[in-house]
Amino acid sequence: MSRISCLVLALFSLGALGAAGPxxxxxxxxxxxxxxxxxxxxxxxxxxxxxDGTKDFDMALYVDETDARRAFPALAARAGGxxxxxxxxxxxxxxxxxxxxxxxxxxxxxxxxxxxxxxxxLIKAAFDEELGERATPELKKSAxxxxxxFDGQLKEGDDLVMRTWxxxxxxxxLAGARKPGPQSPKLARTIxxxxxxxxxxxxxxxxxxxxxxxxLGR
Length: 218
Prior knowledge:
By secondary structure, the chain is α+β, with helices and mostly antiparallel strands. It has one domain (40-217): Chalcone isomerase. The chain has 8 helices and 9 strands. The strands form 2 sheets. A 7-stranded antiparallel sheet has the order 1-2-3-4-7-8-9. A two-stranded antiparallel ribbon has the order 5-6. The N and C termini lie far apart (50 Å). Residues 1-25 have low confidence and may be disordered.
């Protein structure tokens, strides 16, 4: 066999091994789109929440595809372009989601057994950080009603879903049981600010949850 033939065979073998080798990345628990109550929602981004290297849950953010696409040109104009780099170069995308008049859904897929009260404390700390003494009695009451929805024990593999509508309705679905919450546009924005604001629950998730924002402009 000639040297050239040996080289071709070696390269082919390496390519085949590379194609067949297992991926280091675990499969995502989140579909690129989902349908809820007849509305199509698109995945905007996903990531993991970890504490001291241990993963508590994977989290994904979905938005109503039709309404978010309709609003996207205004975001691109503020960001100075439609590329992912432009859209993620500042806080425009996070603000777009927080203030956007479209349905938003966060899905948490738990990697281990987790007390829902622990998640309630995470969100409450973010609420306290953002609202502080500025919260009106009405908003405080709505926030307490929302936090009260987080109870019980989540098992490994369970999903918890938070949903807000453009009119301020709020719902939590925990282990398959849907629980309606208070209706408050201000509280709905506060919920999303807890994940996407300047002092988020997770700095890593703040970026990861909007990582696919450019897909709305395609």
